[in-house]
Amino acid sequence: GLSRDHFSQPRALEWQSEDGHPVHGLYYPPHNPAYHANGLPPLIVHVHSGPTSQSKVEFDPSLQFFTSRGYAVLTVNYRGSAGYGRAYRQALHGNWGVVDVADVASGAAHVVEQGLADPSELTLIGGSAGGFTALMALVRYPGRFKTAICRYPVTQHPLVPSGHKFERFYNHSLLGPLPAQAEVYRERSPIALADRIQDPVLLFHGTDDPVIPESHTAEFVQKLRANGVPCGYRVFEGEGHGFRQPENIETYYRLVGAFLREGELPEESL
Hints:
Layout: E1 11-16, E2 22-28, E3 43-47, H1 61-67, E4 72-77, H2 86-90, H3 99-113, E5 122-127, H4 129-140, E6 147-151, H5 170-174, H6 182-187, E7 201-206, H7 214-226, E8 231-236, H8 246-262
Parallel strand pairs: 3-4, 3-5, 5-6, 6-7, 7-8
Antiparallel strand pairs: 1-2, 2-4
Helix pairs in contact: 3-4
């Protein structure tokens, strides 16, 4: 097995949001004793799902995949994340798709300002709600990020009925009640804002996802391609909300690696 020398150790970062609020995250420097880098590393900006979840200091092989290959990683615990108090968590109420997106962008800017990453090599990665935030960052900050890689992202609201009982009233608190806030739902749906996206996107989804229908992502892909946006899409047969089959997980990382290295978009699977 690999020794501990191959694992990147994170350090906690705190920075100011665009409107002056403290935001938290973890920075993982690239680390592989067999290689030496030249210049600043490319940065993976990892957006957790939830959206009221938290990226913790723990061994996460999905992050070490990147740090062992020369990438730095920033996991952003944007406002709304757990672990920083009630007010911090509730800052996302009514603001999902706004403060989380701003915090991801300011986090990437902070890492660049600290001289820890190449400003021309910023990649967003997220699944589910994290994929939603990543896509909204492409909408709001065109040209800021080189690309976004999203697994089963939320592309349209509202997601009703949700596959998660616990999240049945998530939209109500994070976006607002319907029908009163219908315009807010439209303004926070990546598919309604797809015309503003210009940066390449790589998307993944499972055919058996009980939470977000694969058809949502397929429709989003069609819209991006109609606009001439480079867009790769891979559908995994029999996978749900989260990939579990070893061969599909291996394929996912192989395609992500090729996309980041060479800009190679995968061929259609279905």
